[in-house]
Amino acid sequence: MQMTSVTAPHPDPSGPAQHAGRSDDPRGSAAQADHPHPPHAGEGAGRVDWTRVREDFPLLRREVHGKPLVYLDSANTGQKPAAVIEAVDGFYRSHNANVSRAVHALGTEATEAYEASRKALARFLNVRADELVLCSGTTFAINLVAYSWALPRLKAGDTILVSRMEHHANIVPWQLVAQRTGATIKVAEITPEGTLDLDALRRAMTPEVKLLAVAHVSNVLGTVNPVREICREARRRGIVTVVDGSQAVPHRPVDIAAIGCDFYAFTGHKMCGPTGTGALWARREHLQAMPPFLGGGEMITEVSFDGTVFNDPPHKFEAGTPNIAGFVGLGAAVDYLEGVGMAAIEAREAELLAHMTQALDAVGGVRIFGRAPEKAAVVSFLVEGAHAHDLATLLDLEGVAVRSGQHCAHPLLQFYGVAATCRASLAFYNTHEEIETFIAALQKARRLLA
Ligand SMILES: Cc1ncc(COP(=O)(O)O)c(C=O)c1O
Q1: CA of 131 to the centre of ligand 1 (A)
Q2: Cα-to-chain-centroid distance, residue 309
Q3: Rounded distance, CA 280 to CA 306, Å?
Q4: Is 144 helix (H, G, I), strand (E, B) or coil?
């Protein structure tokens, strides 16, 4: 097997990564393109030197409680490669200024860097840059749809359809809208193995349903939902679709145009980018019709006491100073992920998932939640006789970081009748050795708790 190392994009330390939008931008015209290109695909996991890739992540070298860190909490937040850390650092050291306000050189550089990241994200996800609203993450993005699209439109008698496996960020905003409009919430149920019951979902798409909110990938079960098929069915019935892509974008090639949804929300910190970054993609007609969510600077073209003329989308929805350095970092994260290759990342994580699932099944007394045939590398589990928090605490003492609790998905845990689970979530920078360490730590914890 030929092993070729990934040339991870390390930015010029004197410049704000590759996203400065400068004339010497190494990504050339592609970085400047207004029109999207399909995401690349086809690389296999075997063509990447994963040991080299792991070395790009400085934090993974640290120890916890005197043990090498085994980070199995990437569904919570992802670790950052040096290229992203350096891009943020380089921006503050050499280019820091506010965007879209100053004509001086730094102001221009900051604006170009920020907009170059929007273009990089658009290219990565196969959408138009002017349909991408940059914001603090999925929670903001879904609330933007709730307050600007749903609140002015929905009324008593309308229904919002959400799946059982949604994160609270894709439940609570709809409940707030329902309370204020008189609309009702309907739940699309799942099977015990953790897949959406598609027949039931189709039947639930009745004429009263105006909006359907569904996760692309479940943060608890790892289930990959057939969002393309779901959105096609919804569209045929005139139902507007909101897809939560938080757990999909970091782990597989995502082509939003091919999905055919109305809105797609995602978060930057799970995809190697800084916290406080993310975006909402929306069809242009929605962005034009929607009123602004927040008012302030940046989102206007003219203000007088008689009224305000709003900026064009997406700027109409980006009030105030954004997380400029964060988005420069997110642009570097996109470059980095493209450098590794999303198809290779998906294949690598599938291998790691198969290993972890097999190893957990071999332990005995382990209940895994979520056995969907198409599944991302998230494993929620319980060990007979052990509380999830006790288990996570003992694993931590062995250097293994897993999340325990309800994973912001109370209705899903209610479905399974459990108060909490442990969740081990993988990323491409994890190793097979780490899975063995995790299993050994789990067996030790189990003995202690018996
Ligand atoms: C599926 C899903 N949706 C939404 C969110 C919320 O993302 P954020 O907290 O970045 O807004 C998360 C984060 O865990 C998630 O996993």
Answers
A1: 21
A2: 33
A3: 31
A4: helix
Q: Is pLDDT above 90 for 4?
A: no
- Tell me how far the alpha carbon of residue 80 lies from the centroid of ligand 1, in angstroms: 17
The mean pLDDT of 88-92, rounded to a whole number, is: 98
> For ligand 1, what atom is nearest to the CA of residue 215?
1
Ligand 1 cavity residues, CB under 6 Å: 137-139, 167, 169-170, 215, 219, 244, 246-247, 267, 269, 408
The CA–CA distances, whole Å, from 214 to 163, 196, 373 equal 6, 10, 18
Token digits of residue 285 = 């007609």
Dist. CA 355–CA 344, nearest whole Å: 17
Phi, psi at residue 396, to the nearest 5°? Answer: -60, -40
- pLDDT over 70 at 18, yes or no: no
Please spell the DSSP secondary structure of 101-118, one letter per residue: S--SHHHHHHHHHHHHHH
Mutate which of 134, 138, 407 for ligand 1 pocket (most atoms within 8 A of beta carbon): 138
Report how far ligand 1's centroid is from the alpha carbon of 189 (Å).
20
In the chain, what are the helix, strand and coil shares in percent, each to the nearest 5? 45, 20, 40
The alpha-helical segments, DSSP class H, found in 155-217 are 172-181, 198-204
| Rounded Cα distance, 186 and 199, in Å | 15
Q: Mapping DSSP to helix (H, G, I), strand (E, B) and coil, where does residue 150 land?
A: helix
For the chain, the residue count is 450
User: Which residue's alpha carbon is at the smallest distance from atom 7 of ligand 1?
Assistant: 138
DSSP 335-400: HHHHHH-HHHHHHHHHHHHHHHHHHHHHHSSEEEE---SSB-SEEEEEETT--HHHHHHHHHHTTE
- Residue of 140, 406, 407, 408 to test ligand 1 pocket, by largest number of atoms within 8 Å of CB: 408
Mean pLDDT of the chain: 91
Q: What are the catalytic residues?
A: 408
pLDDT in tens, 228-263: 999 999 999 999 999 999 999 999 999 999 999 999
State the DSSP code for 23: T
CB 210 within 8 A of CB 182: no
Minimal-distance CA residue to ligand 1 atom 16: 219
Tokens of 248: 């999909």
Those residues with Cβ within 8 angstroms of residue 28's Cβ, 6 or more apart along the chain or in another chain: none
77 C-alpha to ligand 1 centroid (Å) = 9
